[in-house]
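Training component of the fellowship. As part of building independent skills, the fellow (R.M.) carried out the full modelling exercise for a liganded target. The chosen ligand was 2-phosphoglycolic acid. The inputs are recorded below so that the supervisory panel can assess the work.
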Amino acid sequence: MKKLWIGTNWKMTKTIAEGIAFTTRLKQISETLPSAIQLFIIPSHTALVPIKEFTSDSSIYLGAQNMHWEDGGAYTGEISPRMLAEMGLDLIELGHSERRQYFNETDEAINKKVHAALAYALKPLICIGENADHKHYHISKETLASQLKISLHGVSKQQAKNVLIAYEPVWAIGEQGVPADAAYVAEIHDFLRQTLIGLFEEVGLEIPILYGGSVNHDNFLEYSKLENVDGLFIGRAAWDIEQFKEILTQLGAQAAQKKSYIG
Ligand code: PGA
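Fellow's submitted model of the complex:
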């Protein structure tokens, strides 16, 4: 069955107590949703262990926001894939634009992290996105192809089955972000699908491509209906659990109707 992946990265927002309150409510909501909706949450590192206790008897996947690629060593302030795998996490978010912008993450570093994640059976959720200049100069597709090809360098077809991609145009993310037109999102997701097929042949058809960047109550349905949009990666509009519930309820109804999501 094809899944619709819906998740939220809390960035540096929620405390442990706030995260537990959110997760407790999300669990109740998840029981009302069709199984075609695959929920995931990505808390801060400090909240992962306590929140794992709440997600372990649910269908909600749990992920971390970043990690180092080494198993261990003298890397003050970092956390390793071995440590994250010990917690029983499902996902690791890699290469979010804020990591690239404020912490100088490169595609080459993300590639090392992708391999480390796969070695520890953590699904890498690789974030890619062009910035406003790339869009202005009409090099969005070149930029995205290069981000995809470098971050996935050396990944086998078999490994690629565990990879997820999140397309998040930098100009659409956060408070200053401008929501993208659905037609633009459709064009880019179709291009990303072709690029993934170029890299992994038929496996490229299976890799979920999520959309993110100012996804909100006005635009989520439009994006989620697009052929090559396999999920939504939501920031601000999902941080209030009751607002997130409104989005989830409507997506649940849509998924129940959509043939491809019910097998
Ligand atoms: P936003 O964040 O939905 O608040 O724009 C998206 C993201 O950074 O993943």
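The panel noted the following from the submitted structure. Residues 182-200 form the longest helix (19 residues). Residues 9, 168, 173-174, 177, 212-215, 233-237 surround 2-phosphoglycolic acid (CB under 6 Å).
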